[in-house]
Design goal:
It is a single chain. The chain is 50% helix and 0% strand. The protein is mainly α. It has one domain. It is globular and about 45 Å long. The mean pLDDT is 77.
Length: 101
Amino acid sequence: MNTEALLVHLHESEMLEKQDNDNIKILKFYSGNDFRHLKDWSRMIKTFPNIDTCLLAVKKCGVALQYVPEALKTPELCLIALQQNSKAFRYVPKELRKKPR
């Protein structure tokens, strides 16, 4: 997702109104970079702890799920993380895991 598309999406979800100018600049920086390291994704989630940021992070790096706040770990988000990297399973909340039959 390019910077413009991300900003349009944020605007549509009314998140731009909640962000101050410094955070918007940081978000532009993050969305314009191709992160390759988990520490980059963890920093992004800590800076912007919302569902859109977490979704972007786990789509690119499934194990970034470990930095997603528990309240944001939905079944859909966890599934996306697992599809990207099966090692993310250890960060899926126990109540979302199904026991094998």
